[in-house]
Amino acid sequence: METNLLPTECPCCGTPVVWNGVHLQCPNTKGCREQVIGKIKSWVAALDADFVASATIDLLWDNNLIQSITDLYRLTADDLRKLDGFGDRKAENFVYQLEKSKEMPFSKFAGKLSILNVGVRAIKNLGIKTYDDFVKFNDPRYVIGQNIIAWKKEPGNLDMLRELHDCIKIIDETVSNGTKVCATGKAPVVRSEIVKLLESNGFAWNDGVDKEVKFLITDDVNSTSSKAVKARKLGIPILTYTDFFKQNGIHV
């Protein structure tokens, strides 16, 4: 006698499973522990949040402190101090690091949604500049565009997107992909790290100031360095490191 080995319900929450194409899925996107926790862990991982271990997310869920990604941003140090393993320093650092992630350009925000092959550069290349652009995007001509469309069709993903958009402040981006940037003066980190930060966020590094440079970043906008003098002659905007990084969601 043949036995049907396919599950009829979700092993985590008991909800009857449904077919989504060739895959069986649990439709309980908001109440299924593994689905919700999985999305929270993916978001935290995308933030490069080494201050949050996977087990910490489980602990927060099991203590009814989080039920969604949005809940992460409502946590206070006092909430965390009640948990085993959370002293004052760890609790405050947890909240501080999450607070730092509450502002970012949309390209960086979208690049952290764990969509296959979709990062900052891909979002910019597709001309997606805002949340509304992303929601309306429906161009299947490129594989990356197809991946975005498929992601939006996955149960629960648009709900998660709206939740994140409610708690993340999307800031205007100063530049587009590949824009050349030059720097001068005392930087908050060593020059090699500045280059790495710029390039990892879609900018192109330029050693000197010329007509192709769109921004000069410096510790002092009133600097009289040769680069600053030349930038003013060419009409190139000069921004402090702090202002430039903040406008582009770059965390040092």
Number of domains: 3
Strand content: 5-15%
Number of strand elements = 8
Distance between the termini: 64 Å
Strand order of the largest sheet: 6-5-7-8
In sequence order, what are the helices and strands, one letter per element?
EEHHHHHEHHHHHEEHEEHEH
Helix content: 40-55%
- The chain-level structural class is alpha/beta
Rg over C-alpha atoms, rounded to the nearest angstrom? 22 Å
Q: Number of helix segments?
A: 13
* Average pLDDT, all residues: 85
Show the helix and strand layout:
Elements: E1 18-20, E2 23-25, H1 33-46, H2 54-62, H3 69-72, H4 77-81, H5 88-100, E3 103-105, H6 106-111, H7 120-125, H8 131-136, H9 143-153, H10 157-167, E4 169-171, E5 180-183, H11 191-200, E6 204-205, E7 213-218, H12 226-234, E8 238-240, H13 241-247
Parallel strand pairs: 3-4, 5-6, 5-7, 7-8
Antiparallel strand pairs: 1-2
